[in-house]
Design brief:
The protein is α/β, with parallel strands linked by helices and about 325 residues long. It has a seven-stranded mixed β-sheet. Strands 7-8-9-14-15-16-17 form a seven-stranded mixed β-sheet. Helix 6 crosses helix 8 and helix 8 runs parallel beside helix 9. About 45% of the residues are buried. Bound molecules: zinc ion. The site of zinc ion (ZN) has 4 residues, from loops.
């Protein structure tokens, strides 16, 4: 993966670009989410207006290294032509990995070529054909699963491989410092102070972080599988429980169902989004309440331009 020129390893956070389903409102743009993951930037579901929302959120075209489309309803992809053209205009040179449901490859191609522009982009397409791994690097694995909507739809899960956290006190006790730490991490053992020290003696397991993205879907096994053990789950919550029948008919979740997924999957932070415009500013807190009634973890009702850190797993050493 080529690193974006303007990004540095400043952490992992979700930059919310838009949160409206179907039709934007005065306060909510169509969908759009940039997951900043160290030097990578995953742009999920850029709806109409995403390019301008990027300006407000101070997200640059160079920060986008991956594009993940769940499905090709307009509120999840009408921003693609603008974002892609902006990336070309800004001379993004790095390769960009693109994922979307394979059945609708022609729609992606149409969106890419919706208007005339000088297309210099190096897009590497990974149409999702089956449940399972899509991409893997030393820093993360991206997997996809088919969801249950009215058109082919994929949810995504990003997992950092498990690693080990070095314990400063134990390193010091063995007199290990400087380049020897790297050597020990690489080789698994090191001779220090006349005896062999193993990596296990001076470190502890550090489970990798996990992020999951579940958009338009009915309740289905795949949603639970994607969310399993996620530190952050971004989940659609189009409807309140009163509209549960509507949600099922149109292939959507209620906020309480999003809460149930988070609870059963052991999620830590649930970010609700993709709200029906019917609730309005006054009605939206009810969606968070309905999710919180079944999920004991943290619930965030997303607003446009929020920046939400991915909760850290480890305690600072
Ligand atoms: Zn949809």
């Amino acid at each position: 993966m080529s690193a974006p020129s303007s990004g540095t390893a400043t952490g992992r956070e979700l930059v919310v670009l838009g949160t409206a389903s179907q039709a934007p409102t005065r306060r909510r743009n169509h969908n759009g989410y940039l997951l900043r993951w160290d030097g990578a930037g995953f742009l999920f579901d850029p709806g109409e207006g995403t390019q301008r929302q990027m300006q407000f959120a101070r997200v640059t075209a160079h920060q986008i290294t991956h594009l993940c489309i769940t499905h090709f309803h307009g509120d999840h992809c009408l921003g693609l032509p603008g974002v892609l053209q902006r990336m070309a205009l800004d001379q993004v040179r790095h390769a960009v990995e693109v994922c979307y449901p394979a059945e609708n490859r022609a729609v992606f191609t149409r969106l890419r070529h919706a208007t005339l522009f000088h297309d210099t982009l190096d897009l590497r397409e990974h149409p999702v054909t089956a449940d399972g791994p899509v991409l893997a690097t030393p820093a993360f694995r991206l997997a996809a699963r088919r969801l249950s909507h009215r058109v082919p739809t994929a949810g995504y899960q990003l997992t950092e491989p498990d690693g080990r956290r070095m314990l400063a006190g134990k390193l010091a006790a063995h007199g290990i410092a400087g380049p020897d730490v790297g050597r020990l991490q690489r080789d698994g053992r090191l001779t220090a102070g006349g005896r062999e020290v193993t990596l296990a003696e001076v470190s502890e397991p550090r489970p990798g972080q996990r992020f999951a993205f579940v958009m338009d879907t009915r309740l289905c096994d795949a949603a639970f599988t994607l969310a399993e053990g996620a530190d952050m789950l971004v989940c659609e919550a189009t409807f309140a429980t009163a509209e549960a029948a509507l949600a099922r008919d149109y292939g959507h979740l209620t906020a309480a169902q999003a809460g149930r997924i988070a609870a059963e999957a052991g999620v830590r932070l649930l970010v609700l989004t993709h709200f029906s415009q019917r609730y309005g500013e006054a009605g939206e807190p009810r969606l968070a309440d309905e999710a919180a009634a079944v999920f004991g973890g943290q619930v965030v009702l997303a607003h446009d331009l929020d920046r939400i850190p991915v909760p850290r797993r480890d305690h600072p050493a």
